[in-house]
Each structure stands twice: as C-alpha cells, then as structure tokens.
Amino acid sequence: MSDRRGLGTVLLRVFRYRNGDGAPRYDEFRVPVGPRTTVLDALLGVRRRQDPTLTLRHSCLHASCGTCGMRVNGQEVLACVTRLDGLGDRVVVEPLAGAPVVGDLVVDMEGFYGRLEPSGRPLLRASELADLERFEDCIECGLCLSACPVVATDPHYLGPAALAAAGRLLEEPRGADREAVLGWVDDAHGAWRCHAAFECSEVCPAGVDPAGAIMRLRRRLLRDRLSRLAGLHDREARP
Amino acid sequence: MTGKGLRAAGGRHPSRWLDPRGRHLGTWAFVLNRLTGLGLVAYLYLHLIVLSTLLRGPDAWDGLVAVFRRPVFLALDVLLVLGLAVHGLNGLRVALVGSGLLVDRHKALLVAAGILVGLVGLVAAVRTFV
Fold this sequence. Notes:
The structure holds 2 protein chains of 2 kinds. Chain A has helices spanning 39-49, 110-116, 133-136, 143-147, 160-171, 178-185, 199-203, 210-229; strands at residues 8-16, 25-33, 69-72, 75-78, 90-94, 101-103, 106-107. Chain A is an alpha+beta fold. Chain A has 8 helices and 7 strands; from the N terminus they run E-E-H-E-E-E-E-E-H-H-H-H-H-H-H. Chain A has 2 domains: 8-107, Ubiquitin-like (UB roll), CATH 3.10.20; 110-237, Orthogonal Bundle (Fumarate Reductase Iron-sulfur Protein, Chain B, domain 2), CATH 1.10.1060. In chain A, helix 5 packs antiparallel against helix 6 (178-185) and helix 5 (160-171) packs across helix 8. Chain B is mostly helical. Chain B has 4 helices and no strands. In chain B, helix 1 (25-51) packs across helix 3 (71-98) and helix 3 (71-98) runs antiparallel to helix 4. The interface between A and B is large, with 44 and 36 residues.
C-alpha cells in the first residue's frame, strides 16, 4: 500500500496503556514509510497527525541518550535508529519489558537506575580510554534488562547493566572499595543469577557486552572462593 | 497493577520465555534447558511410578513391558535421550561459560553442543528402530 506521495505505508500496532486503564490495548495506525524513516519518526508522525495522546520518550535522535528504547516486533531497539523499511507490513511496537509502564511506550526506569546506582556509574575521561572502553559506551537505555530472560522471573536480579558496571569498577576502581563491590554482586540475585543466555549482549545498541562482563566477574568470584577454600589467601589479600 | 502503572508490559512470568519474537540462540538454549529439566524431573517420578509395578508381580511387569515396546513409546525413549543430551551438553556449556571459561567462544560451544545432540539423537533413533 502507498500514500498520496507515493511512499509505501506500514501498519503500526502500538501498545497503549494509561494509568487507570483497566487493561492495555493495541491501537493501529497506518504510517508512510520512506527508505530512511525510523520507528521514532513514524511514532512522532502518529502523534502529530493521528493521535496527540500517544506517549513516548525520546531525546537525542542519534542513539546517544538511550531514552527511546522499546520493543519493535518483540526485539529491544532504540527507535531513533531503527528503520521501519524491511520490518514488514505490520509492525508491533511495545514498551520495554520487565519495568512498570507509566504510559503507552514509557516505562518507569527508577528500578533500572536504582540497580545501577551502587556502582557509582564508573566513568573514565576520554584521554584514559584503553581496554576498558566498552562499558564507557553504556547509554543506560535498559534494553538489556528488557531482553534478559532471568529478569522475566526474578524482580530482585541486579541485571546486566549493573553487573557490567560492577565488573568495570573492579577492573579500574578509582578509589572504590573493591570488597564492597564484590559483596554487592556476590549474591544469589547478583552475578550468580545470570544463566548465560547472552541476550543482553545481543540487544545492546552500544556493544557493551554485559554478559561477557558478568562472566568475567564470576570467574573472579570463583577464583576468590577457590583460593579461600584452599586457604591460599582471604578476600582482603586480593590485589 | 500498581500505583505506578501497569506492572510490566511483558509481565514477570515464565511465559515470557516462550515469546519467540526478537530472541537469539542463547535464549532458546536457556528455554530448552528449563523445558528439558522440567521434563526430566517429570520422567523421574513417572519412572518410579512405573517401577512400582514390580510390586504387583512378574505378570503385571511383563504386560507393561509389552506396552512400552510399541513404536510410540520407543519414540518417546528417543525423545528422552534427546532431552538428556540437550540438558547435559548445554548444561556443560553453561557451567564452562558461567565459570568464566571460553566466554568468547560461547556461540561456538552452543553450535558444538547442537551438533552433538543431533548425533546422539541419530544414534539413539538408529539403535531403537533399525
């Protein structure tokens, strides 16, 4: 199908929910699609021309701020850099999973930031980037938390972003208390809860590889436990 | 629902594991491990119940064995071997990667486990039916 300008069109099936609604529903909007039209372009077009009440969040428009994370055809993406062309004639748009929905496509990120907070959000100056640079790219979009199958059933799980931040902190602590960090993640709902599905690394739009960081964290925790079992040294003696 | 809105769009429920949209190989391995784990636990109890037939004497047991030699039950035997292979081999991959070993090779390990599961299934099917 094409619109008056000869552009192709796509049927967007958009998740709708407003606080106080009995249950969520899906509304359908037909939108024009050019070769460079992104999901965010289309949603903003819906808001301008079809339904001004559609609620969504966005900011930078170039995958830098991480605010427009959502699920498109079930896949966690940043809407601002996801082109509609090629996604099919009918595209389902839903908010991130595993977080409370505030309205339509907006989720409450408080739980995500709360999990991340104990890490102190370790950052490096650009001049100091070396092998540690991957976590520096985390844009705190929350896609990893939405994609993780463990988060689907364990609301207390720290989640990929927080654990990757902890791993990053151990690699370059900048005065942080390593023991406190290890105590934070050495928990049934911490590093040990991950089941190596690697879905977080698959959907991360910044190439952070949280799953790899979690596995390195576990290797460190395991080495530490084995050393203590063998009586080689205690946690305090670890470099 | 909560005061802050809908609890979560996808919900916090194992049914989310079975939503195939947008998921990659690692999640399917995760789901398979859970399903085969549940299946194997169910089989264990079923097996104990079947064994209890021995208490009713040789005739009762022989009758049951005759039923289990039917093709449909033999096919279930092959499925059982496949389930064991999936759970065991993928479990080994998860244990290795989860201990921080061969992390960069996790996809290759998954493919290798898949190939081995296929071979085990093939051998089990040939030995059962041929």
